[in-house]
Design goal:
The chain is α+β, with helices and mostly antiparallel strands. The protein contains three helices and three strands; from the N terminus they run αααβββ. A three-stranded antiparallel β-sheet has the order 2-1-3, with no helix packed on it.
Length: 123
């Protein structure tokens, strides 16, 4: 037996493998690419025009100030943990990015599932 001998599938296995490859290629070719919409720059109004004290934070921002920006998220499928302090370099998520600011087309680096399978990490 030669060390250079290679395994070769029989005709049926090779046909099944090729058909599987074609179906995967069709799925990728037919799925639309996520469009990244350009978001307009917010226009800041003077604090005097809003009748809001300069140091007062809106009530909707109160939860972010209490630590939600540091909330880690865990993938319920593979248990990979998203840490806002480190971000995710492979998908251009900068360190310090809160989960709410992570793009909707974010995929788990381990299992490839979408953002909707992530739960708050308690640990």
């Amino acid at each position: 037996l030669s060390l250079k001998a290679k395994w070769r599938p029989d005709g049926n296995a090779l046909a099944a493998c090729r058909e599987h490859g074609r179906s995967i290629a069709r799925q990728w070719a037919l799925s639309p690419l996520p469009a990244k919409a350009a978001q307009p720059e917010p226009v800041a109004a003077p604090a005097a025009a809003l009748d809001v004290p300069v140091n007062a934070a809106p009530k909707s921002c109160a939860s972010a100030a209490t630590g939600d920006a540091d909330q880690k998220m865990i993938c319920s499928v593979c248990l990979w943990v998203y840490d806002p302090a480190t971000g995710e370099d492979s998908q251009d998520v900068a360190p310090g990015t809160a989960w709410a600011d992570v793009p909707e087309d974010f995929l788990c680096p381990e299992c490839g599932m979408g953002k909707d399978v992530f739960d708050p990490y308690e640990g």
